[in-house]
Structures are given as structure tokens and as C-alpha cells.
Amino acid sequence: MLPSMSKLCTSTVRPVAAAFSTGTTRQHHSSGRSRQQHHRHGGSGGKTNGGGRWSRYGKSAATGGTTVLALSWMTTIKDVLGIEKVQLDADPLKEKVKQSWLYRKRRQYDDAIQVLQLALEEAEERKEDMPITRVYDEMANTFYEKMNLDEADKYFRIVIQRLVQLHGKKDFDPEFIGVSLKLADILAHRGDLESAESGFKHCVRRQMKVMEEHMKKFSVAHGALVEDRHTVDTFGPMYTDPIALFGMTLEAYANFLINYCGETRMAEVEEYIDEVMKISYQIYGASSAHTINMLNNFGATLVLKNRFELAKKYLAIGVDRILYVNECAHMLPGYYCNYAESLFHTGQKNEALEFARKAVQMSRSGDDRVRHYTQNFLNDLEKDINRGKPKSWWFF
């Protein structure tokens, strides 16, 4: 049973950007960035258990931006939340939308916007409502990932208006929920935490109600001999999409609480994350790329908010499983660095060194940026561990 969500977050603590997170994020990974000392973020309420300064995550940890790791679920259920799936056909308009999407994934945001402006002109010439809405949606997401929040807010509100007035969508439809989560995040960035939390709560409650009605369709027993025991495999997205979207709303809300609220909300965070984990296990399996990606994102966020014990708890779940998930091979160095950081700050310094060294070994087959980052991470970790040790003097 989920909490009543009666509390409101009124903290004004500014978040820090996550390092070595994965999924759909709006912040560049921190690997390879310059080393910069910074104090633990004040007001977070977390315990370091490690003492002193730490800066292995580089410059990005002090930029003041945040990464909505919850939106990693967007890639999982994109067809549910997208206005319309882009078909690979000869339509030049769809080809432009596809090209802009590829630019966005490569973080070439200005190129994506330029293509979308051409696509919008073409869509308006056709006077077809759905293609126009689809282009507006891509434009909003591009500005959102670029962190141009004013433009993102403007275009998301246009999308919401069109969804309601032209496409007959309600506030419980998946397209509406997806946009509402991003608008809530924009409110959080602007410091309007009360309105932001109200937005996240609305999405959670709406999707919870949708999921409850949805589950009734699949929970009618027809007798032990005929009842389907493998609903996910039998019905596929028809069954899993509403559940996945509910998980996405919980994940978004949990990350909001981690980034903006204090120690008193951590029990809620843990409960929501545990529920998200159950959903991920049910839909994708305990050792799927989706589950590992989510564990890494949670861990990175918790580490950078100084919640080291909780970070260690979730990262430890996937630290062995990730070795057997081929799709996560590129994540191994970052995952091990995140885990090493949590171990260091909870007093397990030898184990931290072990995983930092493994990260360096795993990065040898990667690009220069990752190799540079993991080696610097290990060097800094060794310095921090050795800083307090007495020197031995040998006299001959």
C-alpha cells in the first residue's frame, strides 16, 4: 500500500546533477570532466560517514542543474507517451521528425530545432492536426533536454491544449500524464516546489486509478486450469503499458523528493522506489537492462544527495547482475564508480578501492573519455583513503 502523500515539500534546496546516470536525461554525463572540489550539498540531511570533501564526480556535480532520472522510463514506453509513433516510410515530414529525434539523442539540440522548424512549416501547410501536434511535442522535448525551460514550458502547454481541444484527450490519458510529469519538473526547477509536488501527486493518483481499473480486466479468475499464469507474455504491451506508466510516475515523484526534499521524506522515497522495482521485475525481469539502468540512476542520484547508505542498498542489488546483461556492458565502469563512492562514504574503503579498480579495468575497452574518468576517479579515491594514514619511516 502506498502512503497517502499528504505532506508537501517546502524545501528550497537546490539539486545537484547526477553523474554516470543513464537513460533519458537532460544533463551530460560527468565522465571526463575536470575535477573540482565542492562541499557536500548543504541542507540535504544526508550522512556522509566518510568525512571531508569529495569531488570524484567532477565539475557537473556543482553546476546546480538536475537530472530527472525518472524519465528514463520514457525510452521504455515511448510509444505509449509519444503522440504518434514515427513510421519508417517515404513521408518527408515523418523523416524530418525522425531526424530531429536522432539529433536530440546525440544532444545536437540546435540541429534538431532547425529541422523541427522546417517540419512545423510543412505540417501547417498540410493542415493536419496530428502531425502538427507531433512536431510541437518533439520541439518541447528538445528544448526540455536542452534545459531551455521557458521554451519547453511554452511548447508543452501548446501540446496539452491541442491534446484536449483537438484530440479529445483527458487528464488520465497516457499522453497527458507524460507531458504533465515534465511540466511538474519545470515547476520544480523554477523553485515552485509546492505546485511541482501537486503536479507529481496528480499524475501518481490518476495513473494509480487507471491501473486499478486496468488490472480488474486481467484478474478475473476462470478456474485454476484455464487462468493465464503468464499475463505479461500473453498480452504484452496491452497489459504492461499502464503498469509501466504507473511505475514512471512513482519514479518521477521519488526523484523529485530526493532532489528537493529533506530527510523526513526519505521513508517515502524508499517505499516508492521499492514499488518501482517490483513493477520493473514484473514487466522486464530482475536482470533486465531496464532494471539495471534504473538501479544505476537511483544510485547516482542518491550518491550526489549524500544518501550513501540508501545508494549502496540499491546499487548492491545490481552490482553482480549487470555482468550478465549484455546491453549494460557500456554502463559497467560508471556503475562500479557509483557503487565505489557509496562504499567509501559508508566506511567500506577497501571494497570501494576494489570496485574502482574494476571500473578502470572495464573501461579499457571503452572510449578515451570513460578511461580518463575512471582513472581519475581511482586516483582521487586512493588519495582520499591514504590522506589520513600515518607515514612509515625506515631508518638504515
TrEMBL record:
GO cellular component, one term: mitochondrial inner membrane
GO BP term (any one): mitochondrial respiratory chain complex III assembly
Keywords assigned: Mitochondrion, Repeat, TPR repeat, Transit peptide
Superkingdom of the source species: Eukaryota
Residue segments, region Disordered: 21-57
InterPro entries xref list: TPR-like_helical_dom_sf (IPR011990), TPR_rpt (IPR019734), TTC19 (IPR040395)
Pfam families hit by this protein: TPR_8
Ranges of compositional bias, category Gly residues: 43-53
Chief localization: mitochondrion
Stretches with biased composition (Basic residues): 26-42
Record's subcellular location: Mitochondrion
Similarity comment: family membership: Belongs to the TTC19 family.
PANTHER family xref list: TETRATRICOPEPTIDE REPEAT PROTEIN 19, TETRATRICOPEPTIDE REPEAT PROTEIN 19, MITOCHONDRIAL
Name of the protein: TPR_REGION domain-containing protein
Organism this protein belongs to: Caenorhabditis elegans
Gene symbol of the encoding locus: ddl-3
